[in-house]
Amino acid sequence: MFQLYRPLSFLVCLLLTITVSQAQQTGANFFESGITKSKSGDFMGALQAFSMAIGANPENAPSYYNRGLAKANLKDHRGAILDYDRAIELNGKDALAYLSRGVSKSKQDDHRAALMDFSRAIELAPDDAQAYYYRGVSRSRLEQYRGALQDFSKTIELDPNNVQTLYARGITKQKLDDYAGSLADFSKVIELNPKRAQAYAGRGASLVQLKQYQKAAEDLNKAIELAPEDGESFYNRGFAKSKLEDYKSAMNDYDRAIALSGTNYRAFYGRGFCRGKLGDQRGAIQDFSTAIELDNANVETKVVYNGKISRPILDGLRNAVQQKNIIDALSTERSEAYFNRAISKSKTNDVKGATADLNKAIELNPTYSEAYFTRGLIRSQQGDQKGAILDCNSALQLDPKYAEVYYVRGIIRHSLGDENGGCLDLSKSGELGYTPSYKAISDYCN
């Protein structure tokens, strides 16, 4: 018998082929195991399986990608990024790898790098709605709101009932001061998911900005019913109630907002306003002081009566003026809090403190016409009629239709002997709708 002999090199090649085949098969088994464990939520087990798959076949991009996903689900975003890097190195056309890496980078607050990954994912898969959504989120974080709006709109074009994106677009429209436009997005979210408290809260906040206070309160009632620990909804509802002059109920909302977040300086401001309206001036001053001081980088300055209107008459006419004192949103520099604290101080006869607060309000907001007018009233009360006229002039430069200012300037001018100028001011005040001017004209201008 003849025995068949094969060259040694052939046997080595055969052995290597079998070994590689077995390794690939083993790698495939580990990979499938990783997929199964990921689907069941066992991300630690999945991570181990994908690591075994990589050990068996270190050039398999999907193993790195899926291990990255497992790490991301375990909140290990830095480790996930390294795996996505390797997956992309092995397969630079994998849109999902760019998308997932972008998500992990955004979790690390590296939004500029994330944005680049999302843009690349969109280049590779231009119909992937989620890529536009995530890019929109990163743009929002970078305050690129118009770009974010475009991305969210594209997502909705591709996926019209995407609740998450509809809500995000509504918030972005608010950032762009398009409160009316945001209503449709929040309403669509509510239609698709009537239990989503955030949508009621968002719509309520927009309605406040649109001065539809009763409707806003109704939406915020629902938001609070669904999410009773949402301090911002309590604050917004309190603000709406303040605008509706329901001060007692508003104060309860501000109390709750403060209990939920002791750093909500706007809630202290709102509560101070309500306390002032309800006669608690000392409590109002305390709240306004807190509103000013809390987390604020800005916290740290004789006349002859010749007309028919004598000093006592002037005081009586002026003190009867009803000031424009309605609650306004608290700006970042807190000038409104200084202004309202001044009013409360003036009602407790703390003239010096009131004047100092009005000076600060004007310093922080030089276009604050009400603050000039109020300071003018106080100056007039203290006998500084020329200073009062200067403040009235400033208020009118800022708000030429401020009827009460014309009235006060008119009676002061008249008291100083400028009967013609005073009566012209009173006439303008009446023209603008301040009816007490006509009584003064009748008494002193004829």
Automatic annotation (TrEMBL):
<protein>
    <submittedName>
        <fullName>Tetratricopeptide repeat protein</fullName>
    </submittedName>
</protein>
<feature type="repeat" description="TPR">
    <location>
        <begin position="197"/>
        <end position="230"/>
    </location>
</feature>
<dbReference type="Pfam" id="PF13432">
    <property type="entry name" value="TPR_16"/>
</dbReference>
<feature type="repeat" description="TPR">
    <location>
        <begin position="129"/>
        <end position="162"/>
    </location>
</feature>
<feature type="repeat" description="TPR">
    <location>
        <begin position="61"/>
        <end position="94"/>
    </location>
</feature>
<dbReference type="Pfam" id="PF13181">
    <property type="entry name" value="TPR_8"/>
</dbReference>
<dbReference type="Pfam" id="PF00515">
    <property type="entry name" value="TPR_1"/>
</dbReference>
<feature type="signal peptide">
    <location>
        <begin position="1"/>
        <end position="23"/>
    </location>
</feature>
<feature type="repeat" description="TPR">
    <location>
        <begin position="231"/>
        <end position="264"/>
    </location>
</feature>
<dbReference type="GO" id="GO:0009279">
    <property type="term" value="C:cell outer membrane"/>
</dbReference>
<dbReference type="InterPro" id="IPR011990">
    <property type="entry name" value="TPR-like_helical_dom_sf"/>
</dbReference>
<feature type="repeat" description="TPR">
    <location>
        <begin position="95"/>
        <end position="128"/>
    </location>
</feature>
<dbReference type="InterPro" id="IPR019734">
    <property type="entry name" value="TPR_rpt"/>
</dbReference>
<keyword id="KW-0802">TPR repeat</keyword>
<dbReference type="Pfam" id="PF13431">
    <property type="entry name" value="TPR_17"/>
</dbReference>
<feature type="repeat" description="TPR">
    <location>
        <begin position="335"/>
        <end position="368"/>
    </location>
</feature>
<keyword id="KW-0677">Repeat</keyword>
<dbReference type="InterPro" id="IPR050498">
    <property type="entry name" value="Ycf3"/>
</dbReference>
<keyword id="KW-0732">Signal</keyword>
<feature type="repeat" description="TPR">
    <location>
        <begin position="369"/>
        <end position="402"/>
    </location>
</feature>
<feature type="repeat" description="TPR">
    <location>
        <begin position="163"/>
        <end position="196"/>
    </location>
</feature>
<dbReference type="GO" id="GO:0046813">
    <property type="term" value="P:receptor-mediated virion attachment to host cell"/>
</dbReference>
